[in-house]
Design a protein that fits this description.
single chain; 260 residues; alpha/beta; Rossmann fold; 4-stranded parallel β-sheet; 13 helices; globular
Length: 260
Protein backbone atom coordinates (compact mmCIF):
# COMPACT_ATOMS: atom_id res chain seq x y z
CA UNK A 1 0.00 0.00 0.00
CA UNK A 2 1.87 3.07 -1.23
CA UNK A 3 1.45 6.55 0.16
CA UNK A 4 0.05 9.32 -2.02
CA UNK A 5 0.46 13.07 -1.87
CA UNK A 6 -2.23 14.97 -0.02
CA UNK A 7 -4.43 17.17 -2.17
CA UNK A 8 -5.05 20.83 -1.35
CA UNK A 9 -5.82 21.27 2.36
CA UNK A 10 -9.12 22.95 1.46
CA UNK A 11 -10.36 19.83 -0.35
CA UNK A 12 -12.70 17.41 1.40
CA UNK A 13 -13.70 13.93 0.28
CA UNK A 14 -17.35 13.19 1.04
CA UNK A 15 -18.00 9.52 1.79
CA UNK A 16 -21.70 9.44 0.98
CA UNK A 17 -22.70 6.08 2.64
CA UNK A 18 -25.00 3.43 1.17
CA UNK A 19 -28.20 4.57 2.86
CA UNK A 20 -27.78 8.19 1.81
CA UNK A 21 -27.01 7.15 -1.76
CA UNK A 22 -29.94 4.75 -2.05
CA UNK A 23 -32.64 6.28 0.15
CA UNK A 24 -31.93 9.94 0.94
CA UNK A 25 -29.49 11.55 -1.51
CA UNK A 26 -30.62 14.96 -0.32
CA UNK A 27 -28.59 14.37 2.84
CA UNK A 28 -25.47 14.11 0.72
CA UNK A 29 -26.36 17.29 -1.14
CA UNK A 30 -26.96 19.07 2.16
CA UNK A 31 -23.56 17.89 3.42
CA UNK A 32 -21.88 19.24 0.29
CA UNK A 33 -23.68 22.56 0.73
CA UNK A 34 -22.57 22.88 4.37
CA UNK A 35 -18.96 21.99 3.60
CA UNK A 36 -18.85 24.52 0.79
CA UNK A 37 -20.30 27.20 3.08
CA UNK A 38 -17.44 26.38 5.45
CA UNK A 39 -14.99 27.21 2.67
CA UNK A 40 -14.06 23.73 1.42
CA UNK A 41 -13.93 22.27 -2.03
CA UNK A 42 -15.85 18.98 -1.99
CA UNK A 43 -15.12 15.90 -4.07
CA UNK A 44 -17.07 12.64 -4.08
CA UNK A 45 -14.68 9.84 -5.08
CA UNK A 46 -16.13 7.51 -7.72
CA UNK A 47 -17.04 3.91 -7.07
CA UNK A 48 -18.06 4.22 -3.43
CA UNK A 49 -19.83 1.21 -2.00
CA UNK A 50 -20.28 0.00 1.58
CA UNK A 51 -17.82 0.84 4.35
CA UNK A 52 -17.97 -2.80 5.46
CA UNK A 53 -19.91 -2.37 8.69
CA UNK A 54 -22.60 -5.02 7.99
CA UNK A 55 -19.97 -7.60 7.09
CA UNK A 56 -17.91 -6.72 10.17
CA UNK A 57 -20.97 -6.94 12.44
CA UNK A 58 -21.83 -10.34 10.95
CA UNK A 59 -18.35 -11.77 11.48
CA UNK A 60 -17.41 -11.80 7.78
CA UNK A 61 -13.96 -10.29 8.25
CA UNK A 62 -12.79 -11.24 4.76
CA UNK A 63 -15.59 -9.24 3.11
CA UNK A 64 -15.12 -6.39 5.58
CA UNK A 65 -11.41 -6.21 4.73
CA UNK A 66 -12.14 -6.22 1.00
CA UNK A 67 -14.53 -3.29 1.38
CA UNK A 68 -12.15 -1.48 3.73
CA UNK A 69 -9.30 -1.78 1.22
CA UNK A 70 -11.55 -0.33 -1.46
CA UNK A 71 -12.44 2.66 0.71
CA UNK A 72 -8.83 3.23 1.76
CA UNK A 73 -7.70 3.31 -1.87
CA UNK A 74 -10.51 5.68 -2.89
CA UNK A 75 -9.82 8.10 -0.05
CA UNK A 76 -6.05 8.35 -0.41
CA UNK A 77 -4.63 11.82 -0.72
CA UNK A 78 -7.47 13.80 0.81
CA UNK A 79 -6.66 16.05 3.73
CA UNK A 80 -10.10 15.37 5.21
CA UNK A 81 -12.72 12.66 4.75
CA UNK A 82 -16.20 13.63 5.96
CA UNK A 83 -19.03 11.17 6.54
CA UNK A 84 -22.68 12.13 7.26
CA UNK A 85 -23.04 9.08 9.51
CA UNK A 86 -21.61 8.27 12.91
CA UNK A 87 -21.85 4.53 12.29
CA UNK A 88 -19.90 4.55 9.02
CA UNK A 89 -17.35 7.02 10.36
CA UNK A 90 -17.05 4.91 13.50
CA UNK A 91 -16.38 1.81 11.40
CA UNK A 92 -13.55 3.56 9.59
CA UNK A 93 -12.04 5.16 12.66
CA UNK A 94 -12.45 2.37 15.20
CA UNK A 95 -12.59 -0.88 13.25
CA UNK A 96 -10.41 -0.51 10.14
CA UNK A 97 -7.19 -0.70 12.19
CA UNK A 98 -8.49 -3.84 13.92
CA UNK A 99 -9.25 -5.46 10.57
CA UNK A 100 -5.61 -5.08 9.48
CA UNK A 101 -3.87 -5.83 12.78
CA UNK A 102 -1.86 -8.61 11.08
CA UNK A 103 -1.14 -6.73 7.83
CA UNK A 104 1.39 -3.97 8.65
CA UNK A 105 1.21 -2.16 5.32
CA UNK A 106 -2.59 -1.96 5.34
CA UNK A 107 -2.58 -1.21 9.06
CA UNK A 108 -0.52 1.91 8.42
CA UNK A 109 -2.92 2.95 5.66
CA UNK A 110 -5.94 2.31 7.90
CA UNK A 111 -4.45 4.39 10.70
CA UNK A 112 -3.68 7.16 8.25
CA UNK A 113 -7.32 7.20 7.12
CA UNK A 114 -8.45 7.14 10.75
CA UNK A 115 -6.59 10.38 11.39
CA UNK A 116 -8.31 12.10 8.48
CA UNK A 117 -11.89 10.88 8.90
CA UNK A 118 -14.64 12.92 10.56
CA UNK A 119 -18.35 12.63 11.14
CA UNK A 120 -20.04 15.63 9.54
CA UNK A 121 -21.19 17.65 12.57
CA UNK A 122 -17.92 17.07 14.39
CA UNK A 123 -15.99 18.30 11.38
CA UNK A 124 -18.15 21.39 11.01
CA UNK A 125 -17.67 22.34 14.68
CA UNK A 126 -14.24 21.03 15.66
CA UNK A 127 -12.36 21.56 12.39
CA UNK A 128 -14.20 23.91 10.05
CA UNK A 129 -15.71 26.28 12.60
CA UNK A 130 -18.78 26.80 10.42
CA UNK A 131 -20.13 30.33 11.06
CA UNK A 132 -23.57 30.51 12.65
CA UNK A 133 -24.84 32.81 9.92
CA UNK A 134 -24.27 30.00 7.41
CA UNK A 135 -27.08 27.90 8.91
CA UNK A 136 -30.84 27.53 8.49
CA UNK A 137 -33.32 28.99 9.03
CA UNK A 138 -35.82 26.34 10.08
CA UNK A 139 -39.05 26.93 11.98
CA UNK A 140 -40.17 24.34 14.49
CA UNK A 141 -39.48 22.35 17.63
CA UNK A 142 -36.98 19.54 17.29
CA UNK A 143 -35.74 16.72 19.46
CA UNK A 144 -32.45 14.93 18.84
CA UNK A 145 -31.59 11.22 18.88
CA UNK A 146 -27.99 10.36 19.75
CA UNK A 147 -27.05 7.38 17.60
CA UNK A 148 -24.97 4.76 19.41
CA UNK A 149 -21.91 4.70 17.14
CA UNK A 150 -21.50 8.44 16.93
CA UNK A 151 -22.00 8.92 20.65
CA UNK A 152 -20.09 5.96 22.04
CA UNK A 153 -17.37 5.44 19.44
CA UNK A 154 -16.71 9.03 18.41
CA UNK A 155 -17.94 11.09 21.35
CA UNK A 156 -20.38 13.12 19.27
CA UNK A 157 -22.99 14.82 21.40
CA UNK A 158 -22.45 18.54 21.81
CA UNK A 159 -21.48 19.26 18.20
CA UNK A 160 -24.92 18.78 16.58
CA UNK A 161 -26.58 20.63 19.45
CA UNK A 162 -24.21 23.57 19.09
CA UNK A 163 -25.03 23.81 15.40
CA UNK A 164 -28.77 23.41 15.91
CA UNK A 165 -28.70 26.06 18.63
CA UNK A 166 -27.61 28.55 15.99
CA UNK A 167 -30.43 27.77 13.54
CA UNK A 168 -32.82 30.72 13.40
CA UNK A 169 -36.38 29.76 14.30
CA UNK A 170 -35.53 26.31 15.69
CA UNK A 171 -36.15 25.28 19.28
CA UNK A 172 -34.42 22.15 20.57
CA UNK A 173 -36.36 20.16 23.14
CA UNK A 174 -34.51 17.17 24.61
CA UNK A 175 -36.41 13.92 25.02
CA UNK A 176 -35.77 11.47 27.82
CA UNK A 177 -33.34 8.65 27.07
CA UNK A 178 -31.96 10.47 24.05
CA UNK A 179 -28.81 8.36 24.27
CA UNK A 180 -30.66 5.01 24.37
CA UNK A 181 -30.45 2.78 21.29
CA UNK A 182 -33.38 2.89 18.88
CA UNK A 183 -33.05 -0.83 18.12
CA UNK A 184 -31.71 -0.50 14.58
CA UNK A 185 -28.08 -1.43 15.19
CA UNK A 186 -27.36 -2.36 11.58
CA UNK A 187 -27.90 -6.11 11.39
CA UNK A 188 -29.22 -6.23 14.98
CA UNK A 189 -32.76 -5.41 13.81
CA UNK A 190 -32.62 -8.36 11.41
CA UNK A 191 -31.17 -10.84 13.90
CA UNK A 192 -33.38 -9.83 16.84
CA UNK A 193 -36.54 -8.31 15.35
CA UNK A 194 -38.74 -8.65 18.45
CA UNK A 195 -36.20 -6.92 20.70
CA UNK A 196 -35.57 -4.29 18.05
CA UNK A 197 -39.29 -3.55 17.73
CA UNK A 198 -39.66 -3.05 21.47
CA UNK A 199 -36.63 -0.73 21.56
CA UNK A 200 -37.83 1.43 18.71
CA UNK A 201 -41.34 1.55 20.19
CA UNK A 202 -39.84 2.85 23.43
CA UNK A 203 -37.88 5.45 21.47
CA UNK A 204 -41.00 6.57 19.63
CA UNK A 205 -42.77 7.04 22.96
CA UNK A 206 -39.95 9.29 24.15
CA UNK A 207 -40.20 11.29 20.93
CA UNK A 208 -43.97 11.65 21.37
CA UNK A 209 -43.58 12.75 25.00
CA UNK A 210 -41.17 15.50 23.97
CA UNK A 211 -43.88 17.29 22.01
CA UNK A 212 -41.44 18.03 19.20
CA UNK A 213 -42.68 18.23 15.64
CA UNK A 214 -39.32 17.12 14.22
CA UNK A 215 -36.97 14.27 15.10
CA UNK A 216 -33.36 14.89 14.09
CA UNK A 217 -30.27 12.72 14.11
CA UNK A 218 -26.97 12.10 12.39
CA UNK A 219 -27.47 8.48 11.27
CA UNK A 220 -29.92 7.71 8.51
CA UNK A 221 -30.33 4.08 9.61
CA UNK A 222 -31.63 5.15 13.02
CA UNK A 223 -33.84 7.81 11.50
CA UNK A 224 -35.39 5.42 8.98
CA UNK A 225 -36.03 2.91 11.75
CA UNK A 226 -37.68 5.44 14.06
CA UNK A 227 -39.58 7.20 11.26
CA UNK A 228 -41.04 3.92 10.05
CA UNK A 229 -42.23 3.01 13.54
CA UNK A 230 -43.68 6.49 14.12
CA UNK A 231 -45.70 6.19 10.94
CA UNK A 232 -47.00 2.75 11.88
CA UNK A 233 -48.00 3.99 15.34
CA UNK A 234 -49.59 7.20 14.03
CA UNK A 235 -47.13 9.60 15.67
CA UNK A 236 -47.07 12.77 13.51
CA UNK A 237 -43.48 13.83 14.29
CA UNK A 238 -41.43 14.10 11.09
CA UNK A 239 -37.84 12.86 10.82
CA UNK A 240 -34.94 14.62 9.10
CA UNK A 241 -31.20 14.19 9.02
CA UNK A 242 -29.49 16.98 10.95
CA UNK A 243 -27.66 18.06 7.78
CA UNK A 244 -30.96 18.85 6.08
CA UNK A 245 -32.00 21.22 8.85
CA UNK A 246 -28.58 22.87 9.07
CA UNK A 247 -28.54 23.44 5.31
CA UNK A 248 -32.09 24.79 5.31
CA UNK A 249 -33.45 21.99 3.10
CA UNK A 250 -35.88 20.39 5.57
CA UNK A 251 -38.87 21.86 3.76
CA UNK A 252 -39.64 18.82 1.62
CA UNK A 253 -40.93 15.33 2.41
CA UNK A 254 -39.56 13.92 5.66
CA UNK A 255 -37.85 10.55 5.90
CA UNK A 256 -40.33 7.86 4.92
CA UNK A 257 -42.78 10.26 3.28
CA UNK A 258 -43.61 10.15 -0.40
CA UNK A 259 -42.54 12.90 -2.75
CA UNK A 260 -45.30 15.45 -3.18
Amino acid sequence: MSDSAVTRPDTVALYVTCLVDLFRPGVGMAAVDLLERAGYRVEVPDGQTCCGQPAWNSGDEAQARELARRAIRQLQGYAHVVVPSGSCAGTMVCHYPTLFADEPEWLDAARDLTGRTWELTRFLVDVAGLPADSLGPCQGIATYHDACSGLRQLGIREQPRKLLGAVQGLSLREMEDTDTCCGFGGTFCVKYPEISERMVSNKVERVRESGADMLLGGDLGCLMNIAGRMQRLGVPTRAYHVAEVLAGTADGPAIGEKER
